[in-house]
Amino acid sequence: MDLQRELETAAPARRRRRYVVVGVLVLAGIAVLLWYAVGHRSENHKPRFETREVRRGDLTVTVSATGTLEPTNQVDVSSELSGIIKTVVVDFNDRVRIGQELARLDDTKLRAAVAKSEAALASAKASRREAAATAVEARANLERMQQLRRSTGNRVPSDQDLETAKATLDRASAAEASAQARIAEAVATLNFDRTNLEKSVIYSPINGVVLIRSVDPGQTVAASFQAPVLFTLAEDLSLMELHVDVDEADVGMVHEGQSAVFTVDAYPERSFPAVIRQVRYGAETTSGVVTYETVLTVSNEDLTLRPGMTATAEITVQEVKDALLVPNAALRFVPPAPAAAGARSGFMGRLMPGPRRQLSTVNQAASQTGPKVWRLENGQPVPVAVTLGHTDGLWTEVRANDLAPGTEVIVSILEETR
Q1: Are 277 and 243 in contact (CB under 8 A)?
Q2: Judging by DSSP bridges, how do beta strands 46-53 and 408-417 pair with one another?
Q3: How far is 409 from 330, CA to CA, in rounded Å?
Q4: pLDDT over 80 at 46, yes or no
Q5: Average pLDDT over residues 99-106
Q6: pLDDT in tens, 359-417
Q7: CATH at residue 367
Q8: Shared domain check, 407 and 368
Q9: Which domain holds residue 406?
Q10: Which of 11, 102, 358, 365 sits most deeply, having the most CB atoms within 10 A of its CB?
Q11: Do residues 96 and 214 both lie within one domain?
Q12: Helix, strand, or coil (residue 412)
């Protein structure tokens, strides 16, 4: 009975040990499989690179700027006088010539002022004639008294009467001069009132087109404090100006006489030519951005373009002929850092890391300063040092001894493959 009880007790213990041994072996097998799969995959997968050819060609460097179209000469026509608009004889888009009537103020009060000034001038002239006659009479009286005194041996008239005659002549002369001054004043007042009457008719100061008309008949114009703008005229829309803001980083490359093309939202498929006429020195700062206003001359013979249109211009600042060109993506490419030779990877590599090795040649080249591109040799990236020239944003002019047209340079990594 004791032996049977011992056998029954030992059987489960042996089964448990057998299960433990089997479990350990299974785990060990899984660990080996994982180590092989992860380690083998990391060692045999290599990156696949996208490349593009180095080419030789022409390079055009441009500067972008935005702005608005404006007439070459735009004039705001105002009124110096206050009053009621009597007539308006032009409308929007009408062509006008110098001296052509645009509008007319009610001139009733102005004509009355002119008539009053004319009457005042006539009165002043009459007063002058009266004063002149009085002066002639006083002068003749003084001359008779002086002749009588000489003939009587200075006895008649008396000294007092002679002095009185002289004073009368002086007063008459003064009155005549005062009347003459009143005539000049009346003439000035009349001219002023006549000028105001002339200004009641508003004329065009230029040959051009009516862009804005701000008044209608019956409207009151108040010019007491500020001359109101009644019309805005553009001198010649067949020749316009494009005013763009050039960034301070680009203004050093922009000069008078350079050519440009621009587009407007109204005609997105069409490009318009322009030429830089002026680069202004005055800076404008908007939200911390410093720009310089640049004026371009634009031909608009077909009157397609209109004042106020927003335009985006591309200014040609440099043209390079027969240059060695590489894509800009090649200059930005940096190869991935490869794992150190002999190091374990995957789960087992983290559990049992191998000894550290020195950086590879790729790592060493990537750490070096200076512009470079990378080409493939035996499937590995190899750096090529270059000297940079001009760029148009897509291609860059370079100088390098180890590059030739047709050389494939790396621009990106596509994926990792076996």
Answers
A1: no
A2: antiparallel
A3: 6
A4: no
A5: 96
A6: 455 555 555 678 999 998 888 899 999 999 988 889 999 998 888 899 999 999 886 55
A7: 2.40.420
A8: yes
A9: 47-59+325-417
A10: 102
A11: yes
A12: strand
